[in-house]
Amino acid sequence: MISNTSTGAGPSGAGRAGGGAPTREPTRAQLPEGAREVSVDQYLHLMLERDPWTPRPLTPEETVLIRHQCVRLLASYLRQEAYNKVLKTRIVKTAEERERHIADIREREGHAVKTYIAYQLIYWRTFRIHDLPMEILSNIIRYVVWSAPSPPIGIRWRLQLTWVSRYLRHAAISDPTLWNAVWFRDNPPFERSLAFVERSGISPLDLRINDTEARKFTDEEVCALLKALTPHLHHIRMLIILLDNWEPILSVLKWLSDYGKEADRSLTMERFEIHRTGNPYIWPGTVYRGARFDPVNHTVSLYSLFGGKYVSELKSFTMNGVYIDWANTPSLENLTTLDLRRIPLELCPSLPRFRQILCSSPMLTKLSLDGAGPASNPTGINNYPAINLPHLQTLVLANFTAPFSKSIVSHFTAPNVKDLTIMNFKGFNYGPFYEFMIGRFRKIKLLTLYTTNCPIDILPTVIKWLDSMPLLAYARLAALEHDILQAFLFDPETMEVHPSLTPEMRKTFGIVEDLAFTKLTAPSKEALEDKDRAPRLVNPRLNVLEVQNIRPEAFAKFIGARKLCGIPVKKTYMAKNMLADFHPDLLRYIRENIDGLMIVDMGAKTQEEEELLNEP
Q1: Which residue in 133, 192, 288, 430 has the most C-beta neighbors within 10 A?
Q2: At what angle do helices 40-50 and 95-123 cross, to 10 degrees?
Q3: Cα(406)–Cα(473) distance, rounded to whole angstroms?
Q4: Residue ranges under compositional bias (Gly residues) (predicted)?
C-alpha cells in the first residue's frame, strides 16, 4: 500500500512539505496481509526502475499514443479524487464500520496517487523542450533555480541542470545570472564555487564566504581564495564574510584596502558584511586570560575600508566583531542599512564620525547597534542637535549600559520607525532610558524584547512607554519573566492592574500593585474618579506573539491574563525547542486561549510581519 502523507504527490498535496500549518496524523488502518506501505518517493523510484525511459525522438504514432494515455490517466485521477471527497463525508456508526471505512479511504487514496504518478511519468515524454527558443528556456531555468527553498538545494539544482543533456547544459552555462550568487560551502580550494564564479562572467556577483565550527578556514586558504577572486572584485555586488579567526579577517580587510589603493577599476559593491564569529573578548594587541594576542603574520591590524576610496554604490554596511580605520574611511554615505555589533567603545567611530554617517544617509531604513556605537562620553549630548531620519523603519538597540542607550537615541529622531528591538537591557537602571522613549516612536507596530527585565521601581515608566506605542500589533518575546510581562496587564490611565484579573490570577502571576509614581507616570485623576469609565489595557491591538526561551508557566499565565482582560492573543509562533517543556495540561490550556498556535523554526519573517512592515 502506498502512503501519500510523506510528500505532496498530486495537486491536493503540492507544496505541503516543509511548511504550512501542522496537520494531524491520519488514523492508521491495518494493512492487508502481504502488503507493505511505501512512501511516494519510494513508489516513484520503483516505477522508474520498472519502466525506465531513455529520452529519444518520438514518432508521430508514439506521440499520439502518449497523449491519449495522458488524457485517460488524468481523467481517471480526477474521477478518483472526486469520489474520495464524497467518501470522506460518509457517516459511519460502529467501530467496525469505521475501521473498514478508514481502510477503504486509504486504499482509494493510494490508487489515486498511483494514477497521478503514472500520468506525471509519461506526460513529460511529449514535451518538446528542444524546440523552445533559448531565451524562453533560460527564463524557465531561472524560475527553477531561484525557487529553491534553501541555498544547498539551489546549488544542487544548478548542477543537476547541467547533467541532463547537452542542450540544457549549454542553456544553463551560457546564462551567467544562474551562477552569480555563490555561497562558498565547499572546502578549500573551493573548486566548485570558483567554477560558479567563472561561469558568472562579468555579471554582478553576490558572494558569501563563511567557515564553520567544524571546519575553520586558515589564513593561507583564505588568502588563496582572495587571490582567485581579485580579477572579479570590481563587479562584486554583495560580499558577506563570516570567519572565526582574526588572521583571515585581517587578510580580507587588507585585500579590500590594497585593491582600493592600487586598482584602476572602481568598486561597485552595494552590500558589505564582515562578521568575526570567534571569541568577542580577543582583540589584536590586547591581553586575554594573561596572554597577549598578536595575529600571526599580521603586523598591521588597522585598515581603512576600500583603501579610503569612496564607493558610491555602497548602501548596506555591517561590521560585527571587527574594526577599521574610521577616520580614513570616507565610503559610508547614502546608506540604507547601518549595522554595528560587538566592537569595543574605543574602537568604534568617534561621535562626530558617527553623526556624519547618519547625516549623510537620509534614506537610512535600518539602524542596528549591538554593543557598538559612537565612541564618546555618553552624557555629553547637549551640544548636538538631533538628526532627522524620516525613512528609518527598523531600529535595534542591544547590550548597552543605561546612560549610553539614552545617549545614542538622543542623537536622532525617527518618527516612522515600525520595528523596534531591545535586547539584553538588564542589570542596570534603565528607567531614564524608557522615560526618554515615551512618545518618541509612536508608529511602532513590531516590538522585540529579549533578555530584558523590569524592576518594580521602573514598572510605571515601562507601562507608560508601552502605552505610547498604540499601533503595536506584533511582539517577539524571548527570555522574559513575569516582571516585564505584567506591564502588558495594566490600565495605563489609572495605573492599576486591569480589573478583570481575579485576585488569584494576580497572585499567581506575581503582579505588584503598590507602585511609586513620578509626575510623568502618575495616574489620571479623571480616570480614577470616573466610575462609569470602561477599563483600558496597554497595547489593545497586540494580537500576535512570537515566543522562544520563555518558561511555559509564565507564558501560559500571560496569554490567559490577556484573554481575561478582553484582548486575547489570536496567534502565536512558538519555537520548536519550547514545545518539549510543555506538559499536556499546560499545552491544552494554551490552545484553549489562543486561536492559532504555530510551531515553527525561528528566523524567517512571518506573514504578519511582512504585512505590518509593508503597511503605509
Answers
A1: 430
A2: 50
A3: 25
A4: 10-21
Distances (CA, A) of 547 to 416, 477, 488, 550: 25, 5, 15, 7
Q: Locate cell 504527490: which residue? A: 9
Three-state DSSP at 397 gives strand
> Pick from 413, 487, 477: which is nearest to 446 by CA?
477
Number of C-beta neighbours around residue 300 at 10 A: 11
Instruction: Report the C-alpha gap between 37 and 28 in whole angstroms.
Output: 11
Give yes or no for a contact between 176 and 202, defined as CB atoms under 8 angstroms apart: yes
What distances in angstroms separate CA 587 from CA 26, 270, 553, 583, 590, one per listed residue?
21, 47, 10, 6, 5
- Return the SS3 of 608: helix
| Three cell numbers written together for 177 | 545570472
Cβ proximity of 370 and 399 under 8 Å: yes
Which is it for the CA torsion 139, 140, 143, 145, positive or negative?
negative
Local structure of residue 442 (DSSP, 8 states): T
Is the Cβ–Cβ distance between 484 and 452 less than 8 Å? yes
Within 10 Å of residue 359's Cβ, how many Cβ atoms? 14
Query: CB of 161 within 8 A of CB of 153?
Result: no
Inter-helix orientation angle 60-88/95-123, to 10° = 160
Burial 556-595 (b: 16+ CB within 10 A, else e): bbbbbbbebbebebebbbbbeebeeebeeeeeebbeebbe
Q: Which helix (H) or strand (E) holds 273?
A: strand 271-276
| Confidence check: pLDDT of 381 > 60 | no
Name the residue with cell 533559448: 134
pLDDT recorded at residue 32: 55
Number of C-beta neighbours around residue 46 at 10 A: 13
**Gap between the Cα atoms of 545 and 555, Å rounded:** 11
pLDDT over 70 (residue 516): yes
Number of H helices, E strands in the chain: 20, 22
CA end-to-end distance (rounded Å), the chain: 53
Buried/exposed 180-200: b ≥16 CB within 10 Å, e otherwise: bbbbbeeebebeebbebbebb
| Phi and psi at residue 525, to the nearest 5° | -65, -40
What is the predicted pLDDT for the residue at 35? Answer: 57
| Residue 211 exposure: Cα atoms within 13 Å on the Cβ side | 21
Helix, strand, coil percent values for the chain (each to nearest 5): 40, 15, 45
Give the residue carrying C-alpha cell 509562533.
573
Rounded to an integer, what distance in angstroms lies between the CA atom of residue 138 and that of residue 157? 14
Reported in sequence order, the residue ranges of 394-457 that DSSP labels E, i.e. its strands, are 394-398, 412-413, 419-423, 446-450
DSSP 175: -
Q: 133 in helix, strand or coil?
A: coil
The interaxial angle of helices 191-199 and 219-229, nearest 10 deg, is 20
CB 278 within 8 A of CB 309: no
pTM value is 0.81
Q: Is 592 helix (H, G, I), strand (E, B) or coil?
A: helix
Classify strands 474-478 and 446-450 as parallel, antiparallel or unpaired.
parallel
> Before 349, cis peptide (omega within 30)?
no
What would you report as the CA-atom Rg of the chain, rounded to the nearest whole angstrom? 30
pLDDT of residue 10: 44
Which range in 33-42, 88-97, 553-562 is most confidently predicted, on average pLDDT? 553-562
